[in-house]
Amino acid sequence: MPKAIWILVIGMSINITGASFIWPLNTIYMSRELGQSLTVAGSVLTINALAGVIGNLIGGKLFDKIGGFRTIISGVLIAMTSAFTLAATYGSFTAYVLCLIGLGFGAGMMIPCMYALAGSVWPEGGRRPFNAMYVSQNVGIALGSAVGGLLASVRFDLVFIGNGLLYSSFLILALVYFRHLQGQRGQQRSSSVFENAEILEHKRRFKALALLCSGFLICWIAYAQWASTIAAYTQDIGIPLPYYSLLWTINGAMIVFCQPLIKFFINRFVHSLKAQIYTGLFIFMGAFIVLSQTEVYAGFVAAMVILTIGEMFVWPAVPTIAHKLAPEGKEGFYQGIVNSIATGGRLIGPLFGGLMADLFGMQMLFYTIALLFIIPVVMTKIFDRGVPHLRFARGDA
What we know:
Helix content is 81%, strand content 0%. It has 397 residues and is mainly alpha-helical. The longest helix has 32 residues, at 192-223. One of its GO terms (cellular component) is plasma membrane.
């Protein structure tokens, strides 16, 4: 990989490690330390996620207007200030809510910029820059969750201090290295004929992105069940909490260490990004079919292994296609949409799953989700019909 991608990978890992200090502990902190109900805690996390959606969209738009460097610096300053303020106002619920909004918004601004930069500085890399960013995110999640838990066991405010220090490290890295990672930007054309043609082309590309993302939303609604309804279900059937946590350890370890196997399979058998998504979708479907037939821990392990294989196909492919669809000067905006859709799925998923589980039971929820994957299969099939001149070969074969 080019040096620029390695810099972005290191930056993404630092960024996500810092963010992951806090997110697994939010509910515990609000319920145990601040004395809030689970309903209140859930509402605050929803607000935090909404701030992230807004940050995704604004960050992507700013990337196109003022460039990735200034947008990322703005986002990290907001997140860093919020983290240190959390430490300084330890024990205040009002301050916690406001700072979580700041953290969600600031972090949300940075992520689409990082993805857009990755595609811009290595345009010939195909799926590889986006896959590298995806893996680095998961490394950050694994490290941050583990270290954050250790810090919280000593003193909870150390979590916020550690978060702020990592954002400070990311700020230094960005100031030193990110200024020159702007990629290639297109030239504006003044002819009204060109402008009219470009407007029509932009509409077609945006429609293609919207169709693709409608299927992507379903994938995230399904994936979100593992952190919500499935988590509660494992407790109801007597699976110990540490065993449930181990499922996510398996997920993270596979994402990092199984990349050579996934790369071999894709290079040998999968010859387009659409085929890569199809493969992942049918694997996703299989994971929920397995879940519908098991109440033993080994079944959940098998389902998590299958799910993880599926996500390694789907998650990097969607931002890669978004980058290929993006008109010149819209790369950040398109990545912002993709990231906001993922966040939206994490928001809708627990509500949808909770209602389905309460009304019809967990087995019906699993069957329903397995059937819902037909929607992203159809959307993947048709999304590019309006842009037949674009080709979605992997570009890295």
